[in-house]
Amino acid sequence: MKLKKFTYCNEFKCMAEKCPESCCQQWSIFFSRHDYLNLRNAQCSEELKKAIDKAFVRVNGNNAQGLNYAVVRLDEKGICPLLDDKGLCMLQKELGEDYSGYACRTFPRLKTKIGGDTYICSLDMSCPKTAQLLIAQREGLILTEKNYDGRDKLLNSGIYSSPAVSESWEGFPYYWAIKDTQIYILQNRRLTVPERMLVLGYFSQKTNEYINHKEGGKIPALAQTLKNNNDVWGNIADSLKPDQSRESYGVKSVGIFAKMLLRVRNKGKNHLKELFGIVADSMEITFKSAENKNIETSFNSEKYLEALAVYEKIERERSYIIENVLVNLIFPQALSEGIWKNYFIAAIFYNLLKTCVPAFLPNDFNDEDLALAISRTAKMTVNNELIKKDALLDFLDNRSYTLPYAAFLIE
Ligand code: SF4
Fold first, then answer.
1. Would 156 be classed as within a structural domain?
2. What is the pLDDT of residues 53-92, one digit of tens each?
3. Residue 27, ligand 1, Cβ within 6 A
């Protein structure tokens, strides 16, 4: 087997009780049958035994598979009850890392399998430490490949973060030609980040079409043309740049965010609601029911434009940060799920970065503040399955699932 990952992944070390946004909250913390029985049979203090008895629920029915055998019952704030008063995991503290569940041991590592011989691994950006590492890679993310000896405990445990890509997928022979070119496009520093996103949209749409029309053989030539001919890039980006004012960009961006906000208010968990609330308040978003029963959104456009200016300054002065964030996002996406769909998710995320990141930044922010803002935005958007699917459905429903519309989300 081969293992592909970015070099920065080797620098990861969990911040534990120093983490400003612990991951021990708001998600389903599953234990496999093996991990659960291991824990139940462990010799531990009476206090911990009682906490374990109270914390776990056995999964019933069809979901009770090997990996989803038991789940931690979160407290009323959605936080893991197995944290002590300093925010440390009681299982790890008393028994050691081997006694926590696979989800706790592996997060924020993402992995998937490409064909029969390659694993890919990256880190989830909803972890602030991941975002800190992305901010620290000035020269860009570097992908490495090595032989995998099968001995990495973390890589072996848990489930795939994206669906495995089967060799029977019609696009499989071109998988790495597509993925490498996508990364190459996003790392081309001769263009602005929005221009790179536009070229990425063009390439992703073309490759998607080629595969759907059984013309995958054209993909290597397209990739080569893009790599060899720099003039093509500028022409593609120029032809896609939309003619829109900053105000109308704001209306679209806030519209996307507001739809998500409404969903979170109805279905979301506490902490997510809190995060959405901070962004909504920063732009003074309000809703009212119109006569036709639609919900009308209003917001303070001056505040939006101020926030946009903060984001644009970051992108202008340190574009490598946004580049790294986007490269980290697209690398683990399984192309077999839909190249265009993956791109569209990236375009929505890019748009939401501009809306959400400034809301979490103090006036005089440092890199740790910025990392926290990026990780919170990832948690609210691309790491929130419900939101991600619903946001895509909005576009499918209103026929905006097109490259020209994606361009409106970008600049
Ligand atoms: S979010 Fe990241 S740094 Fe924070 S506790 Fe979880 S793994 Fe550690």
1. no
2. 999 999 876 555 577 889 999 888 788 999 998 888 999 9
3. no
**Do 76 and 199 belong to one domain?**
no
Alpha-carbon gap, residue 209 to 292, rounded angstroms: 39
3-class DSSP state of 334: coil
- Average per-residue pLDDT for the chain: 91
Residue 7 and residue 146 in contact, taking contact as beta carbons nearer than 8 Å = no
Alpha-carbon distance 110 to 394, whole Å?
A: 27
Contact 38, 98 (CB under 8 A): yes
Which of 79, 129, 376, 383 to mutate to test ligand 1, by most ligand atoms within 8 A of the CB atom? 129
Q: Are 16 and 85 in contact (CB under 8 A)?
A: no
Q: Is the CB of 125 under 6 A from ligand 1?
A: no
Which amino acid belongs to residue 24?
C
Report CA(17)–ligand 1 centroid distance (Å): 9
Report the nearest-CA residue for atom 2 of ligand 1. Answer: 127
Predicted pLDDT at 26? 76
Within this chain, do residues 302 and 410 fall inside the same structural domain, yes or no? yes
pLDDT tens-place string over residues 222-268: 999 999 988 898 899 999 999 999 999 999 999 989 988 988 887 76
Q: What is the number of structural domains in the chain?
A: 2
Does the Cβ of 26 fall within 6 Å of ligand 1? Answer: no
Q: Choose the final residue of a domain: 76, 106, 136.
A: 106
Q: Which ligand 1 atom is nearest residue 107's CA?
A: 7
Residue-number span of the structural domain to which 211 is assigned: 124-147+170-411
Fill in the DSSP letter of residue 110. Answer: E
Judge if 327 and 358 occupy the same domain.
yes
User: Do 97 and 207 lie in a common domain?
Assistant: no
What's the full length of the chain, in residues? 411
- The C-alpha atoms of residue 236 and residue 226 are separated, in whole angstroms, by 10
Contact 347, 197 (CB under 8 A): yes
CB atoms within 10 A of CB 387: 23
**pTM (predicted TM-score):** 0.93
The C-alpha atoms of residue 89 and residue 24 are separated, in whole angstroms, by 9
Q: Which residue lies with its CA nearest to atom 7 of ligand 1?
A: 14
Q: What span, in angstroms and rounded, lies between the C-alpha atoms of 209 and 224? A: 17
Tokens 């022409």, located at residue: 235
Same domain, 195 and 81: no
Assigned domain for 12 exists: no
